[in-house]
Amino acid sequence: DSVCVGNCQRMYDGEEHGRFMEKLEARIKNHDREIEKMCNFHFQGFVDSITELLKVRGEAQKLKTQVTDTNNKLQESGKELLFEMEELRKCRLQQRNIAATVDKLTLCLPVLEMYSKLRDQMKTKRHYPALKTMEHLEHTFLPRVNPFRFCTIMVHNIPRLRQEIKEVSMSGLKDFLECIRKHSAKIGETAMKQVSVIPLLCIIVCVVRKPVTIISRVPHCVCWAAAGV
């Protein structure tokens, strides 16, 4: 520190001050020239970079416009495609529903036809065929369509229909027996008359050249003709 202070003092006291200032000015000018050279060298590159950047910005703006237009067109085309895809999905769903409905109807129609046949048989008082149809319906057809509501209704109605057939049959049987009881005397009288008129067995012996079997035209009467008796 003392050396620096001494040098500075000598420089300002003597003629060294002028020489120092000259050298300092020369040094400053030299550095200024170096800085100017460096700035000139990099300034041209900077200008070129700015020019290229401006060109790129213009091209980027054009590209942005093109991308925006393409995106808008794509969005419009996509909307139409999405609409068509939605319509296709609905059509396929309807097609599956129709196919499922056809399959279910294929299972249900025989059951409904059998049940209609059962009702017709009951309406015409054909009770035995109605019972057979009911049994076939209950054990064969209804289990195939068990989940459906009408099937549950039919299953609940079958015992009632069976009881209805039983009651109608018993009523008919009672009416028949009552009719027989009322007319039993007349029926017995008619039967006795028929038995007394028609002989149980008629044997007619005729002499002919060869045996011939003759069936009498009288009901329940068999006439035999035998040769040589």
Automatic annotation (TrEMBL):
<dbReference type="InterPro" id="IPR007225">
    <property type="entry name" value="EXOC6/Sec15"/>
</dbReference>
<dbReference type="GO" id="GO:0016020">
    <property type="term" value="C:membrane"/>
</dbReference>
<protein>
    <submittedName>
        <fullName>Exocyst complex component 6B-like</fullName>
    </submittedName>
</protein>
<dbReference type="GO" id="GO:0000145">
    <property type="term" value="C:exocyst"/>
</dbReference>
<feature type="domain" description="Exocyst complex component EXOC6/Sec15 N-terminal">
    <location>
        <begin position="23"/>
        <end position="192"/>
    </location>
</feature>
<dbReference type="InterPro" id="IPR048359">
    <property type="entry name" value="EXOC6_Sec15_N"/>
</dbReference>
<dbReference type="Pfam" id="PF20651">
    <property type="entry name" value="EXOC6_Sec15_N"/>
</dbReference>
<dbReference type="GO" id="GO:0006886">
    <property type="term" value="P:intracellular protein transport"/>
</dbReference>
<keyword id="KW-0175">Coiled coil</keyword>
<dbReference type="GO" id="GO:0006893">
    <property type="term" value="P:Golgi to plasma membrane transport"/>
</dbReference>
<dbReference type="GO" id="GO:0090522">
    <property type="term" value="P:vesicle tethering involved in exocytosis"/>
</dbReference>
<feature type="coiled-coil region">
    <location>
        <begin position="21"/>
        <end position="80"/>
    </location>
</feature>
